[in-house]
């Protein structure tokens, strides 16, 4: 049986188990009594190693874990953190002997849209090999693409930090070319910027704060450098104050769905296009508009 999802234990790095599908990653299933999101892991199979660990340590299932996305070669290409609140004690109850649906009450850091899951399905077969594959999606689809890019990148960075045989190498290039043909929204800019720096499916921030972090190193290029922005007129036309406010409203809605406090990190008080230029230049990036 092919399993597209894996559940990983954070503290031990053990595979907890595999499943064929997960219902509730988009936040649609909620345990109203407890106030948690509920995940249903379809045809879940516990790993032998995790079973032996629980039998030895006599721990409950409650722990920090990751839902991992597996590709066709059974390698994890992205993951999402969550905390499992269930205190089931399998060392007393015994583990299921057959694949069965596992219901978990969890706190999840971010919700995963249906479009995002569809993009993962594509990446399972092959990672992006051409620029602007994200451009075929609508605004929400581009947000979903950017989320996949971020998850895939963050997992790879974490792997490199842990694995002493790998070094994070910074690109020594001093000039990068960004294709502005499809930059019509907030997420579009970061999709295009990531690919300008790191190639198809590349990541270089998903918002202003994470972009600033990237410029200090560890993500393919250190500032200062030069960014040649082709077809910048598209962004100038689309990225107005309304475009920025639309993104802020979307972020607020996502926070509300997660049950988090409403906090405003960015203030859409001017055209988004101008804010992007200001942020780039503030980080020492020379922008040449073409």
TrEMBL record:
Domain Barstar (barnase inhibitor): residue ranges: 175-263
Record Pfam families: Barstar
Taxonomic superkingdom: Bacteria
InterPro entries: Barstar, Barstar-like_sf
Family from the record: Belongs to the barstar family.
The protein's name in its UniProt record: Barstar (barnase inhibitor) domain-containing protein
